[in-house]
Amino acid sequence: DAGVTQSPTHLIKTRGQHVTLRCSPISGHKSVSWYQQVLGQGPQFIFQYYEKEERGRGNFPDRFSARQFPNYSSELNVNALLLGDSALYLCASSSLVVAASYEQYFGPGTRLTVT
Amino acid sequence: EDQVTQSPEALRLQEGESSSLNCSYTVSGLRGLFWYRQDPGKGPEFLFTLYSAGEEKEKERLKATLTKKESFLHITAPKPEDSATYLCAVMTTDSWGKLQFGAGTQVVVTP
Question: I need a labelling partner for A62 at 20 to 30 A (CA). Which of A25, B74, B82, B108 fits?
């Protein structure tokens, strides 16, 4: 079975631009969470979507937004990019169907560099 | 405020030299504690979930344990391929989609 996939792998953008990152969860998983990981730190939670609805939001500005589609894939959008948005963006999927099945499985990430 | 602290920040081991990594946490209510392994430039790889104090999980040379305040990841007779950053994360009872991570422990195993 394919794992979580993310695209693109790498991205270079200029300050002030907009970026869209994409994620496809593991087949059968209905929950997608997004994280930002800055070098040397653990991932920081941005959003969680379950059944196409936002179920959680981390401490990120309104420039960050996301959505989930009927096929459970997801997009993360970041507007008005700042240098500090340079990071590895991770998508994780989880089943949440089986009781106490809260494991999250991560994709390879998208490396965003803002210049 | 919920907190997750990992120690040490970095660990250098000789092949075969067993050691333990620590993850201490302060949360209002624990739904689960998760261990991940991360190689440079890649996404975290799921290792274990622990749900209640006293629980233990094993996988090859790795064993994770949980108390009410901390978790340990024991690495027995490590090999160079065990070199990675090990991340600990908690999920609280008021959230079932958010993992709160520690900063990680970078482990280097030399032959």
Answer: A25
